[in-house]
Amino acid sequence: MRKIDPTECEHLVSSIELMASHLENVAKILNKEDINSMISDIMNANSIFVMGAGRSGLVGKTFAMRLMHLGFTSYVVGESTTPAVEENDVVIAISGSGETRSVADLGKITRDIGATLVTVTSNRNSTLGELATTVMEIPGRTKDDVGGYLERHMRGEYSQLTPLGTSFEIASMVFLDALVAELIVITGASEADLKSRHAKLE
Amino acid sequence: MRKIDPTECEHLVSSIELMASHLENVAKILNKEDINSMISDIMNANSIFVMGAGRSGLVGKTFAMRLMHLGFTSYVVGESTTPAVEENDVVIAISGSGETRSVADLGKITRDIGATLVTVTSNRNSTLGELATTVMEIPGRTKDDVGGYLERHMRGEYSQLTPLGTSFEIASMVFLDALVAELIVITGASEADLKSRHAKLE
Amino acid sequence: MRKIDPTECEHLVSSIELMASHLENVAKILNKEDINSMISDIMNANSIFVMGAGRSGLVGKTFAMRLMHLGFTSYVVGESTTPAVEENDVVIAISGSGETRSVADLGKITRDIGATLVTVTSNRNSTLGELATTVMEIPGRTKDDVGGYLERHMRGEYSQLTPLGTSFEIASMVFLDALVAELIVITGASEADLKSRHAKLE
Amino acid sequence: MRKIDPTECEHLVSSIELMASHLENVAKILNKEDINSMISDIMNANSIFVMGAGRSGLVGKTFAMRLMHLGFTSYVVGESTTPAVEENDVVIAISGSGETRSVADLGKITRDIGATLVTVTSNRNSTLGELATTVMEIPGRTKDDVGGYLERHMRGEYSQLTPLGTSFEIASMVFLDALVAELIVITGASEADLKSRHAKLE
User: Fold this and answer.
1) pTM value surpassing 0.80
2) Measured between CB atoms, does D116 come within 8 Å of chain B?
3) Which backbone phi and psi does B65 adopt, to 5 degrees?
4) Chain A residue closest to D52 (CA)?
5) Domain boundaries of chain A, sorted by first residue
6) What is the pLDDT of residues C146-187, one digit of tens each?
7) Is C85 on the interface with A (CB under 8 A)?
8) How far D124 CA lies from chain B's nearest CA (Å)?
9) CB-side exposure of D164: number of CA atoms within 13 Å?
């Protein structure tokens, strides 16, 4: 067994602190009109479909699962028993860049069907941003990077501490879970209601 | 189309702030010896397997994907081409309660094979905690709940703001991504290295 | 580029012929009472859940998808938006040996909930066979192997031609698709009905 | 509980017999040059990637799993730890029509990367057929339908007995498992070798 020199874990701790700080910032600058539009889209939909590639797709699955717990009819695009999208459905696309090719293609089909398309992205001016009926912008790395917390505190280590799409993916997951909190209040669901729908076979 | 009364989004904002505050707390109280033990397990393993049920399983997938980006040989238990676990491998089980039945069963098999078992959990004194060679404790809801931020600020709304296992799931995801940051420094990987391994077909 | 000696493909051709012959045999010896019992379980269920490990699990997913196309409410155990099983639901477990540990564990939970458990297996006298309310036996390798087509024609090459659970997995898939054919007639569904429910986002 | 009239299962039995007959036909008319080309592509590849949408994608997963059992490095496009495709890799696309949009898009990217693309399809003259370096044609419904077994025996019930892509999906699965049989002989693998790589955590 190779001996690994013990680390002071300073990068790990900095990375968590950086995400905490990023989330505080996100809480302040989210656009409330967009949030209300997204809530309205979800509440009015017949069924809610979630899609995304890679880690954004996994974040989408955590959200679709909670929507089911809340009593909504929700599906993940690409899973086995996901049916055809119809006009009265909403499709929620998650893509940091807003340019993920396959997701953008499905976004176009969504609009052709006449269904509502919500894009959760850090880039409003993107293919998926422009296709969407509602754009829910989650500040990701680019926005943060300039003259903010990162420059002041992280001395350029940002790409090590939250590489690739990490900051968008975590911020999206926290945002979507916070949206669940809002939906719990709106629908009057209790934690026991959620638990009763939670899979018993797992 | 039903008209939904616009909301001030106060529960959504509180939920994000609560998670940010929780993460700051997590950054402070993580056990550095456990982290070093987990890092050593990963660095010494032939292959790294990740498993978990439900949302914890999805968090596990985001971590396994980043390990692959970093150049490690990593697998998700239950995916199509995941091979047999062997003695020199490490299996990382993610379970807030440490009691998820199917995951605990696989944890026992892992130990019978002679492989290393790391349990990421908020409950050290659990079946998976006791089976593990390394327990990586991530404070979840219970720990936070007493006399801390929640009681002082949230006045009992905690279960609405981060229902079920939400706080553990997000804290695990942020912790595991922060562990990736530490591993980036240890292995000397650059963001370009990670990007070069990122799936091109998605 | 390595030059691979061209093959006459005789093992490939023999393997397909062997499966064709096996299926003809399966068509003859399936127990019609069991089939009617399984049809009745499906028609009476509120929701239909399908589960299995490895390749049997993938066969289960192809069946769950077709049930959805047919208009049934169907789910795959372990997918993101699969809800809690309830008393009026049926759970279909697919396991050649009938002994797959995790599936058997979930079979027990299914019965504890009071839901109907159908086991599709080549081994009636197994844990999952004994737990089930309906056992749908699909002859697999063992049954076939003695004094039948294989001994007469294959001269002991059987394990090469359909290794591990291959013959059960294919026979199950063909059987379940044939059950879909029967359900199409019973429900009066047209191919156009099925197509209209087929996922448009894929 | 609703009483379902017991059925003589004649459609179910006919559907299995039809598939058996179809497979016998497939065994006769498969192009051996294509098979040898596909075997050579697989044997020479660094890594083997499999992709497909819906039920074809599930068939692809059963094949990727067996390739891993055989000792090949294989991945399923879209799973968590699937890395970047590189020049010396082969990508196997499964699509009955050869026109599945997202799969065709990924086929284009595969060729742009310079990797080998094998298309398993019932339609050689399709987008994926034309993109491929090797086309492995599996006769599906169309081919069978004219003047053959179906017309003579099934009196137009074909679309009920094997609706949508069923006959292609099953024929592909049986073909790919038969290809595994051929690869077992070529590589000299024993069933015990396969079993030793089979997932122990499931």
Assistant:
1) yes
2) no
3) -65, -45
4) A78
5) 11-189
6) 444 444 444 455 677 888 899 999 999 999 999 999 999 999
7) yes
8) 23
9) 25
